[in-house]
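OP here, attaching both records as promised.
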Amino acid sequence: MEARTHPTGQTLYVDATQGERGSKAPFYVVYNTDRERWGFFCSNCESFDTAVDSMGRIKCNSCNNLHKAEEWDAAHE
């Protein structure tokens, strides 16, 4: 895992072996110093500013890189 510094100064660890395909580049899983899953890292713009919804979609708020949900239900539309 690669150590990176969040804009707040927190050290986070990006695991390039665990990721999700994005529309522009992969999203990689991020862990905090306690080895707890923290979120995702956008490899397109190298940003931690990502959002995940209940359907599993991941969106980078900086460059609009997007990972669509694997499964979806029309009732959620």
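Record two, same layout:
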Amino acid sequence: MVVWAVTHHDALQSLLADPRVGKDARLWSTFREGRLPEGWPLLNFIAVPGMVTADGEDHRRLRGLVSQAFTPRRIAALAPAIEARAIALLDEVGRLEGPFDLRRHFAYPLPMQVIGELLGLALEQQDELHELSDTMVSSSATPAAALAAQRGLNALLASVVAAKRAEPGDDLTTALIDAHEAGRRLDRQRLSEAELVGTLLLMLVAGHETTLNLITNAVRALLTHPDQLRLVLDGEQPWSAVIEETLRYDSPVGQFPLRYAIEDIEVGDVVIRRGEALLASYAAAGRDEGHHRDADRFDLTRQPAKHLSLGHGPHFCLGSGLARLEAETALRHLFARFPGLALAEGATDEPIASFVSNGVRTLWVTV
């Protein structure tokens, strides 16, 4: 098995937009020839049907169906509801006694509630879906546990689809079902059943795991860099600068599997052979000293604060606008409510045991 980790900013930016690089796992000789070990934990990432594993016309078709939910107008319309959710969660946090885990009590429920509402998920389904997706992106889960999580997610999302077929709602799941049914009536495959479930899986994981890490990583960076926090609280730098610098400095996605060489590609003095795999190492690219001056320094005045943490090229993150809105809203209200927020005594920075997700397991703070 050959997988090339692309860790430098310029090389990664070029390859993410290179037409000689595809996302269909059948392009990978190891997958195509059946040489992956049984229970390989990342199988669902590379083989789930949907726009994240599609190329060309299939990718444009699937992205077009989902993009209607993420237009700038629709995202702007969500702002009041996101504000209200952030305020309500902080009201609950304010009733807690002593230090609390900000990741658990604030950074997780906000994006999960938002993506849950977009998909039309019941509240009782959201925690179960989060636990299953956590296991799916975990590097410490056994192959059996990872496989069980993948099956559990698929089964739960299939039940969501069945429920929405019985009782349609004003949500993205119903819209995707309508697209599937319309294509079937016209004998045109606008969206297959497998693509429908796969798209919901992508929306669920990408719609809350990344924003959860973004909020947590941003708060942690600010609390460990009080001089930078002061720049924002004094109005010298906007909250948007915190979002962009956090995306570069501590990317919420460490690396994302996988892409594949459609033909031999020269990258510097390396040749990536046709049929070999590439791993987009977003966190490493954000710390590339060859592209970012003083890359290991968290600096809100950095200009320009360019990064690749939301992707590049045809697979650029469709929900980037929503993630930025949620994170900025969360930070603005959090520090307005608790200007004296600080890391709790004895707080640790144990990383999430994940090949994909980049963040800390807990963020214990005190107000």
